[in-house]
Automatic annotation (TrEMBL):
Superkingdom of origin organism: Eukaryota
Compositional bias (Acidic residues): 281-316
Annotated region (Disordered), positions in chain: 276-316
Record-stated family: Belongs to the CAND family.
UniProt source species: Chondrus crispus (Carrageen Irish moss)
Keyword tags: Repeat, Ubl conjugation pathway
Keyword Repeat: yes
SUPFAM superfamilies according to UniProt: ARM repeat
Repeat found in the keyword field: yes
Annotated GO biological process: SCF complex assembly
Residues covered by the TATA-binding protein interacting (TIP20) domain: 1055-1218
Record-given protein name: TATA-binding protein interacting (TIP20) domain-containing protein
């Protein structure tokens, strides 16, 4: 504290910097002492008594400045929720309030008030929760200073009001808004009061937009009036403030501002044209509209433009109005305040006319707004390729020939696309601007235009080639980089045709820039060279010949960078990519000396850890080209080195190495053993992508070497043994399964010791037996058995006819053994035989297989019958158009096996094409409903006579199978199926209504390629399915909720017109219905059966989908959260979903709105922490309670990340008194941000996780 008075300013500064850390570590009494002393220096009135300019006056001012900085440092260092922060706040706040209230803004007191307001603002933002009781006093003191004549004081007072609004009580917030409204409605002839009111609204909207949303309807018309009224046309400051407030409304109160979209558009367009001191604006825009199809006279434009640049008026502030208007427009674009077609139509042409804005700050904002508009088109597919991360040769480069101007252009983009020449003409002039910043931003905007509208902009690029050349020669690094990025964008979007006519002038400059001192420029040049080589190399011979003379120079430039020792890694990566492209596409033009030397250079680069990956990719590019033979001399070393990379813990390097080895021109035999050993390490289920690539490489080796490597692969822990282990993995899926099947097929085709077809068939049969005793789950074991069966059939396909017949006989014989798993596997194999066109070639063979499968349908075991049903469905699908009618006859003839045959039908529909299904859709739909009714009637009769629970399970199974079949049929005839489903919603039978609701879920969850036609039919009838949520039958309501959830995930736009009604139906299903609860007296204790639990879980799942998806923007978040709070006191399963919804809601842009209902949220969360576990609770009950606590803590952690909520007094008290107590603090601190973010992603139900209905049913039956 003494050193703060030191005459040396550097000593003063260092002492001031020590205050913050010192206050953090000393005790509370010393911290408050520091604050007291510093405050004395600030509010000391001796400065005002001293003569202005005197040493005493200057000394006091200096101490005030140092003390103010010291207090700010202390506030920044103290933890906001600490006891010390509370003590410091209690010490500072009353003195600051008193100073603000009694000080008059005259003379040196202005500086005192400025410092005081800045400190108050820091306190409100950092430790405002400790002074909530003083908020009314603070508000009153601040409003007293608002009429001050000092703009600096008014500005800081307004900032304090904004900070105050973020955490004050709602009554005080409303009072501040009303005072601001009174200022806005003031009839004072001076506009200072109005300006202050606008500034207050702007500040409150920035810090508390969610709270101000309810007042937007009253505020927005007033602001529009001040922006457009002739009475205030000359008050530029007022108009600027109004537009700033409207921009803040757009960003933070989008839903409320959507109703003012048209008014806002007119307001910002008129305000952006406001330029009273320049008369040429309107005529110039009209001239632009007339000349938009041509490039105009450049000389006339030069003269006109020079006049604009020479014009200046230091007293002209109209540009601030235009800038505020453009920023408001930008805000409207960024939140898509209106439908896109209106944004493009209303704002696109207007922004283009504003490119010639004469004030640079406004012009740059115009460019930014237009880039935002282009972003909305979603067409900038190549934007990511302009960054340094795009190093792979296999990038998306445009075709060599220009596309048609209308191709790929959406209707909404046409107002901009049609003005392509006008855009190019105007931006060409901006590239000649005297301002470096303008030229750089113009280049960036041109790059966005080229990537968004390549077919329009690419033919016009020739108009700006000279400007691009100047940009590459500019002394500014940023200008060089932007010019190179623009050229890369042209190559990516327009292909070789875009710049083919300008290579003679561009290439020398590009090559010269490869020697630039700044490595970023050099790397960008080399990337551009690589793109040019790839694009022209893939083009026709005509285009290829244009670049051929420069290929060797590009190659030499890249080679020099690769071989140099002191190069940045980014430069070397780009150079290696360029080398790979030059040899791949222009090897014949490089000359034999260059081509032959490149292999050794690349081989040397493999030894460097930094350049391994780009070198492997360059080698891969050469290996897949006509120049592959240049690698032959070094393939032995390359194979050994790259094979070793397969053991590196770098997935990208492994994948690139596998690509190279799979396409290499030759693999030397002497490296086979080591290569196979390295490949074997990748045959696991930990990374299926790499596993698939490794298996494909092994297949290449087998086809190239045959029996020579088969023995090596047969060794223990080699590819074959690891492949057998992989077959049994429940994680195996997709292309990995296909690659594994192909491996077994290839080995069977070789059929050499020790891997003969007989030995492989024996191993696979043994593997199926071992799966029966493994610890794999039922679902996982079934998946593994199907994979084993596919591999077995693949081996049989490659075997001789006698071996196939022998294997089939053995499998049929195994149907009679005692071991259930062997019998199930046999049935699965028979089904796979039936699908195979090789194994079951004759009609007799297929008949025999079908007979065996039909016999298995009568087996006593449920799993056996399910496997037989799926096998029968697979055979039916393989039979084509004649298969399904025969299965329908079976369904009619065997009513006792209705469920199993429906499973067969589902399998057949899944694997049949739409052409085969279309003729039988009209037969299948009524048949499925008939079977559903018959099943329900039979179940009801059985329950009445026997009271069998198993019968009810069977009824549920049939209903699920029926719904799946109906959903899958929608692929073939969506309109017909949808009409039948809508008719089913009005059925008197609850089982039919439940089936049609479930069918909608399965239909919209089908593959995207078949989804769109169905959704077109669904849009007009979705309300019928929404109505089913209110059905009195629980099963119907649950199925309807699941259907709505599926629609919300796959195509949420279908629900938007019906969202309000849907919410009301779902809200009613969130509450526990006591009439659905039955208490069973079991003697020592009572057991509660809740028949509505599953329905409530489905309702909460719907709400979570709503809040985590695009529908959230159309919802009232407070209303949704208020309704789900009931779930925090429900069953543990429901509670976990409600906690997830709360955490997800806290991650949305509208999360600050939750501050208004924080009292209810805290009360609901606190109930979870107040629950006690019974002393005699079992372990399951204890674990559920702990899970509930952790779920609540995760939700709280997410809520705490919202600044407005973190400042809420009730929430802070809850954190202090409950969460941060010794009982829960350790658990709370253990929850990381990543855990919370992971929690906000899908709590998927069984169907969404991919668990098939038949597997669940089989387990239940068993």
């Amino acid at each position: 504290m003494k050193l703060l008075h030191d005459t040396n300013s550097e000593v003063q500064g260092m002492a001031m910097k020590c205050l913050g850390p010192l206050a953090r570590f000393v005790e509370v009494v010393y911290a408050t002492y520091l604050v007291d002393k510093l405050l004395e220096y600030i509010v000391d009135s001796s400065a005002s008594k001293a003569k202005a300019g005197s040493p005493e006056n200057l000394s006091v001012k200096a101490m005030r400045d140092v003390s103010s900085l010291g207090l700010k440092a202390i506030l920044a260092e103290l933890p906001p929720d600490s006891v010390k922060a509370a003590a410091v706040t209690k010490c500072m706040a009353p003195k600051l309030i008193r100073t603000i209230r009694v000080t008059k803004a005259v003379g040196d007191a202005v500086d005192l008030l400025i410092e005081t307001f800045e400190l108050m603002n820091d306190m409100l933002n950092r430790v405002g929760s400790h002074m909530t009781d003083l908020y009314p006093e603070i508000s009153d003191a601040i409003f007293r200073q608002l009429p001050s004549s000092s703009a600096l004081i008014t500005k800081r007072a307004v900032l304090c009001i904004g900070a105050l609004g973020s955490s004050c009580e709602n009554s005080l917030f409303i009072a501040m808004v009303e005072r601001a409204l009174a200022d806005l409605r003031s009839n004072d002839s001076r506009t200072d009061t109005i300006k202050t009111g606008v500034q207050i609204i702007w500040a409150l909207s920035k810090t508390s937009g969610h709270r101000l949303a309810v007042h937007v309807e009253a505020l927005a018309p007033i602001l529009f009036e001040y922006c457009t009224s002739e009475n205030y046309a000359d008050d530029e400051e007022l108009r600027e403030h109004c537009l700033q407030a409207l921009a803040s409304f757009c960003l933070r109160c989008k839903r409320e501002m959507m109703g003012f979209g048209k008014t806002l558009a007119e307001c910002v367009i008129n305000s952006a044209r406001y330029d009273p001191n320049y008369a040429g604006g309107e005529e110039e825009e009209e001239q632009e509209e007339d000349d938009e199809t041509g490039m105009g006279d450049d000389d006339d434009m030069d003269n006109e433009y020079d006049d604009e640049e020479d014009y200046s008026d230091d007293d002209d502030n109209s540009w601030k109005v235009r800038r505020a208007a453009i920023r408001c427009l930008h805000a409207a674009l960024s939140v898509e305040l209106m439908p896109r077609e209106y944004l493009f139509r209303d704002f696109g042409p207007f922004l283009i006319t504003r490119f010639k804005e004469r004030e640079e700050p406004v012009k740059l904002d115009v460019f930014a707004a237009f880039s935002e508009l282009l972003r909305l088109s979603g067409s900038q597919s190549h934007q990511h390729l302009f960054h340094s991360g795009a190093m792979h040769l296999e990038i998306d480069i445009g075709d060599a020939m220009a596309v048609d101007a209308d191709e790929g252009v959406s209707d909404e983009m046409r107002p901009i696309v049609s003005r392509g020449p006008q855009i190019m003409r105007t931006l060409k002039k901006e590239l000649s601007s005297r301002s470096l910043k303008t030229r750089i931003k113009t280049m960036a905007l041109l790059r966005d235009c080229v990537s968004t509208m390549p077919s329009v902009m690419t033919p016009l690029i020739g108009k700006i080639i000279s400007e691009i050349e100047q940009g590459m020669s500019d002394s500014a690094t940023a200008m060089k980089t932007e010019s190179l990025l623009l050229l890369r964008g042209m190559v990516h979007s327009g292909g070789a045709n875009g710049i083919s006519g300008h290579l003679q002038t561009l290439i020398p400059r590009i090559l010269a820039a490869t020697d630039d001192r700044y490595y970023k420029v050099t790397a960008e040049c080399l990337r551009l060279c690589g793109d040019l080589l790839i694009s022209f190399g893939r083009a026709s011979s005509e285009f290829r010949s244009l670049l051929a003379p420069f290929a060797s120079r590009m190659h030499d430039a890249a080679l020099g960078r690769v071989t140099a020792q002191d190069q940045d890694s980014e430069v070397k990566e780009a150079a290696l990519r360029c080398l790979g492209a030059s040899v791949s596409f222009f090897g014949s033009e490089l000359g034999p000396q260059r081509v032959t030397s490149i292999a050794n250079v690349l081989c040397d680069r493999l030894a460097s850890e930094v350049t391994r990956l780009p070198t492997v990719r360059a080698l891969y590019a050469i290996a897949t080209s006509e120049s592959a033979k240049v690698l032959l001399p070094v393939m032995s070393d390359v194979t050994m080195t790259v094979g070793g990379f397969l053991r590196k813990n770098n997935p990208s390097l492994r994948a690139a190495s596998l690509d190279l080895l799979a396409t290499a021109p030759s693999l030397p035999p002497e490296g086979d053993s080591a290569l196979i050993a390295n490949i074997s390490q990748l045959v696991t289920d930990s990374d299926l992508r790499l596993t698939c690539m490794a298996l494909q490489l092994a297949i290449r080796l087998l086809r190239a070497r045959g029996a020579e490597v088969a023995g090596e692969m047969a060794k223990q822990n080699s590819i074959y043994s690891r492949g057998l282990g992989l077959v049994a993995s429940p994680l195996l899926q997709g292309k990995s399964v296909d690659a594994l099947i192909l491996l077994f097929r290839t080995l069977a085709e070789i059929n050499q010791e020790p891997l003969t077809t007989e030995s492989m068939l024996t191993d696979l049969m043994s593997l199926s037996s071992s799966l029966g005793t493994s610890a794999v789950t039922v679902t996982g074991r079934a998946s593994a058995l199907y994979c084993v069966a596919k591999c077995l059939v693949a081996v049989c396909d490659s075997a001789d006819p006698s071996s196939r017949a022998k294997t089939a006989e053995k499998i049929v014989a195994n149907l009679e053994v005692q071991d259930l798993n062997i019998r199930i596997f046999s049935v699965i194999c028979l089904g796979e035989f039936g699908r195979s066109s090789v194994t079951a070639k004759s009609e007799v063979e297929r008949t025999n297989l079908q007979t065996a499968i039909m016999a298995a349908l009568d087996a006593p075991e449920a799993e056996m019958r399910t496997a037989a049903a799926i096998a029968l469905g697979g055979m039916t699908a393989a039979g084509g158009a004649s298969g399904i009618p025969s299965l329908l006859n079976l369904i009619r003839l065997r009513p006792d096996q209705r469920y199993l045959l429906l499973l067969s039908l589902k399998e057949a529909i899944s694997y049949s094409n739409s052409v085969d299904l279309a003729p039988v859709v009209s037969i299948l739909i009524p048949l499925l409903f008939e079977e559903q009714v018959a099943s329900t009637n039979a179940s009801t009769a059985a329950v009445n006579s026997e009271g069998s629970q198993g019968v009810r399970v069977s009824e549920e199974s049939v209903r699920t199978a029926t719904a799946e079949c109906l959903g899958l049929l929608s692929r073939a005839s969506p309109e017909e199926v949808m009409k039948a489903l809508v008719d089913g919603t009005s059925s008197e039978r609850a089982d039919i209504r439940a089936s049609v609701a479930s069918a909608v879920k399965f239909a919209v969850s089908s593959s995207p390629s078949h989804r769109q036609p169905l959704l077109s039919a669904l849009r007009s009838s979705v309300s019928a399915f929404i109505q089913l949520i209110g059905d009195p039958d629980v099963q119907v309501a649950k199925s309807a909720l699941q259907a709505v959830n599926a629609i919300a995930k796959s195509q949420p736009s279908v629900l938007i017109p019906h969202l309000s009604a849907t919410q009301q139906f779902i809200f009613a299903r969130l509450v526990k219905n006591k009439s659905l609860v039955r208490v069973v007296d079991l003697g020592p204790f009572k057991h509660e059966e809740d028949f509505g639990l599953d329905m409530r879980k489905s309702a909460f799942d719907c709400m979570r989908t709503f809040v985590s998806g695009p529908l959230c923007a159309s919802l009232s978040l407070n209303t949704l959260v208020q309704n789900i709070l009931v779930g925090l006191g429900d069953h543990a399963d429901v509670r976990s979903i409600a906690q997830l919804i709360l955490a997800t809601a806290a991650a949305t842009p509208d999360a600050p709105q939750l501050n208004d209902i924080m009292d209810n949220i805290v009360a609901a969360l606190q109930a979870t922490f107040n629950e006690k576990v019974k002393q005699n609770a079992v372990r399951q009950e204890t674990e559920r309670h702990d899970d509930s606590i952790r779920g609540a803590l995760r939700a709280i952690r997410m809520l705490e990340t919202v600044p407005e909520i973190a400042m809420n007094r009730r929430f802070q008290a809850f954190m202090t008194n409950v969460v941060r107590t010794s009982r829960f603090l350790e658990k709370y601190e253990a929850i990381g941000r990543s855990d919370v973010e992971q929690m906000t992603f899908g709590n998927m139900s069984g169907a969404q996780r991919g668990v098939s209905a038949e597997s669940d049913i089989a387990m239940t039956d068993r």
